[in-house]
Amino acid sequence: MMLDSETTKTYTRPISKAWWLRDRGHFNRRYFMFLLRELTSVFVALYVVIFTYEIFLLTKGPDAHAAFQESLRSGPFIVFFVIALLFALYHSWTWLGLTTKMQAAGRGLVKIGTKTLPPIFIALGSYGAWIVATCVIAYLFLTL
Amino acid sequence: MSDLRTIKITVLRYRPEEEDEPTEQTYEVEFRDDWVVLDALNHIKDHIDGTLSFRWSCRMGVCGSCGMMVNGEPKLTCAAMLRDYYPNEMHVEPLVNFPIVRDLVTDMTDFMDKLKAVKPWIIREEEKPVSEGEYLQTPDQLKDYKQFSQCINCMLCYAACPVYGLEHDFVGPAAIALGHRYNLDSRDEGNQQRQHVIASKEGIWECTYVGECSVVCPKHVDPAEAIQQTKVATTTNRLKSLVMPWGNKK
Amino acid sequence: MNIPKHDVLLVGGGGAGLRAAIAASETYRGADIGVVSKVYPMRSHTVSAEGGTAAVMREDDNLDLHAYDTIKGSDYLGDQDVVEAFVKEAVDEVIQLEHWGCPWSRDEDGRVSVRAFGGMSVKRTLYAADKTGFHMLHALFQTSLKYDAITRYDEWFVTSLLVEDGRVCGVTALNIRSGNIHAISAKSVIICTGGAGKIFPFTTNAAIKNGDGMALAYRIGCPLKDLEFVQYHPTGLPGTGILMTEASRGEGGHLVNSKGERYLSEYVPGKMELGPRDILSRSFIHEQRQGNVFEGPDGSYVHLDLRHLGEKVIDEKLPFVRELTRNYVGIDPVIEPIPVRPVVHYCMGGVHTDIHGATPISGLYAAGEAACVSLNGANRLGSNSLTECLVFGARAGQVAAQHAADTDFADSASMVKMAQDEQKRIETQFFGNNGKERVANIRDDLRQTMEEGAGIFRTEDALKTTCDTIRTLKERYENIGIDDHSRVFNTDLVNALELGYMLDVAEGLAHSALLRRESRGSHARSDYEERDDENFLKHSLAYQTDGDPRIEYMPVTLTRWEPEERTY
Question: A22-143: what CATH class?
């Protein structure tokens, strides 16, 4: 408990809207990459909207769907899909990288006997599972 | 003798009795190869301008007093070598995300309250009398929490955390890491008592994993790791109690 | 007007202060405890202690052996009843700290580990890697948070002890943040402000260690005991004085001179690197005189060689040493030896107390480095001081709380007046006169004269010069001017007040050293090289007067150990 007396005037610095770009004149790459990761969700969401719309069009008959598919082959859409793909990869990669945090240092949530499973195994497991899942889905889409 | 080398240091000043907003002041001080940034500040205080206020004590990176923003990065000024910035002009500011009391001195009462809120002490249902000796704890059990016990409360992680800057209710990296440290201690039984603070909206779930706290931590505590571990553990426990409500262990 | 009141008030929130606060609040229910600290308690200098905490923990050890080691280490100036109480209570105290969460390093079987330390016959030093003080302090501080009876005054700086009818009844303190001076009323006041290493130029001590509490007691007529005994730690980094823990030798590190010899075989053949600190520090000077040392920009040095320990042992047992040498001198001890030289480390002397931590003045207690309970005598053994903070912190907390239970508060109206007078005194002295003397200049001159006169080797002439210089410095201090005349967080003012404390302690120290015409423990007189039990097997007591301090003496308590020649 602290004596709550005699607080003096303090100054609280405002946080700039562009804090993730510049911090007092110095560019912080990690803040920027963090915000970029947050931004990936926008692209993923847009992709989901397009994807849902496509599925909706399937109910309208093959012609409507084919016409829309054709329009997706235009330049702007392709650029969008490339960006969305890169963002999705970036997000997945960094998110799965986080899984090592549950193992790092001495303490780990996954133990074999009294020994902590080294974080690299968790990372390899996560990335591996991710790649396998991607392949399975791709296989299903491309063959069915 | 060669000419005296100097370095320019611009310091953010705030004198609440005289001004409503901080101002900048530039000092030119002798540059010495073996000086840390704090040495230069002390040189200013002792020989140029005694009105410059800042906290410091041990000058060996363990008391946690002298954290400041050096060129925009939170640093212990007693562990930041001046030569790493020479010959460019440097900027020294009080740690961001905290109110400034005066010059380079910030108000850290918010952290002191949060530290107490996570109950950073051993909690047991039954205390073992001292006469019965120590609790046994193997080196492996010690290793479980040791890293998180290295926190020197220097506040660099709070200055690095944009979430704390935007959302002051956030319990924050150091306090969560210290609560986690006790949760992981084999002698402790207080996990449940800390959950409502740590596993709350203002606790771990406020964290969006910027990860900067762990980058700036001078003692490699890795608070981000503490937060992620707690997220996983809390989620698994909740799932477990959903699936197996009867297996509700402590 | 209301002023804060506490049954027991701690001045200082380091290891001893926090232990005392907890002990006081556990002594009787309802006891109201205050802790005034000029820094947030977890910043206190206990945080910098590295090597460990001594207590008898193992089958190959016993209390008498720990007592004997301590007494021999003290060069027979330790009070033997105090030492016996200390070794006995040390055991429970370190276990108590274990129960409070201190992360002691452990053996495979789960017991706390022990390591070898200088002057200790067997391994009895508990440790938390090489950050023992840091972990102890944080464990104590974090534990103290659960006691609602403890009220903290963080960043408040005590400027005087209040005395009424011969008893201490509170303090005046500067709230550093607001700049206001307040009276705090207390039935018992315990001084736990640490040592005064900063009166020397080259020290392991933090900036905050200026002998504040010693001077506070000295100014109200309480004697300072055995002040002349100042410990040089043999292994500090040249230039900065950063401590290279004794544990680095305890774990097997070697001290090597410029000829590549483990030169300690000349001085302490039986103990080598595990000899006591006073002898090791003097050995360095002898080697220096023979030209067997390295020369560098920050003075001469020898090598502390840890390379043969290997990376694994260094990382496990001495990680902080590696971190410090890498950061501050760019040396990795795994591949290079570390340059080291003796550095001022610890004050054996301090506020005179009895075995319970009570001073001769009613209501005033002291513990830790600020106190001289006469455990360490003329030379402290490494790893006894952290334990001392626990044992005598607890003792002082208990007796202070008992005293408080039997006492009433003094009249608060008169205390308000005293606080107003104190504010006026400080404003007049530091803001009122446009003095020309800078704090830093007087401080530098003080440090220089202390090193010249009261360093590792001392002589009559040099000490006299130092005493004279201190008198001149005190006169210059009267003419001090500070740059900062504002109120909020005025560290310029705090530094000026601290300088006043430093001058008082330095004065007592130099005069005590001048009159001790013998060599004992850390006090080595080139003009009186032998220990003189006939005339000086006694404690010095320095009293402040209007002129030079008055030095009196009191006998050493001997119980079972007769003074013998001290060889290792």
Answer: mainly alpha
